[in-house]
Amino acid sequence: MNGHLIQIFLSSLLVAFTGAITPGPMLTLVITSVAQKGFWTAVLIVAGHAILELIVVIGFYLGTLKYLDDPVLLKIIGILGGVFLLYMAISMIIGVIRKKIVLCIEDNKSNFNIGIKHTLVTIGKGIIISLANPYWYIWWLTIGATFMIESVTHNTSGVSSFYTGHILADFIWYLFIGFITATGRRLFNQKIYIGILLLCSLFLTYLGVKFIISFSFK
Length: 218
Prior knowledge:
Elements: H1 3-21, H2 25-37, H3 40-62, H4 71-97, H5 116-131, H6 134-151, H7 155-183, H8 190-216
Helix pairs in contact: 1-7, 1-8, 2-3, 2-7, 3-5, 3-7, 4-6, 4-8, 6-7
């Protein structure tokens, strides 16, 4: 893997991880589902999410991006992607300052009951919860599209690096949440969580400014 692919992978991983750790519908679904049915529901929920996003990435790669192959439109998408990254960073910082971002994980006992029907239903929930989140569409039309525009310049290797980094972040975070929810262990506290949020917000600020500057002069 060359330097460009590593950069795509790491940037995708960090940006996706920042989005994943911000409380939202997916986090709520993972915690409640794991509390009721067990750890493996977290795996299935993220798998559903991953399937949906794989379809989006393939769609971009096979044809959708050609409709974005216009210098002015690419510039707009890149700048909007940078602006949305800055918005995410500022929102997290404000949320931390105002103490509006709280990670609540209760001790729960899990009941493991994984069957074919439950597997399909849980994967479906991972797909539906993503489609029901308006920020998911905004992300893919701005940040996601910007990453794809850069990734396709390295053909399938670049796109694979982007997708792998993006989905790996979701699996790392939500399986971690699923684990501590299922076991009831207090391995993660609010201070650590806030520290991670602040570091991620700094990275988002850097990447947002980078996107805005680089696409403004293209």
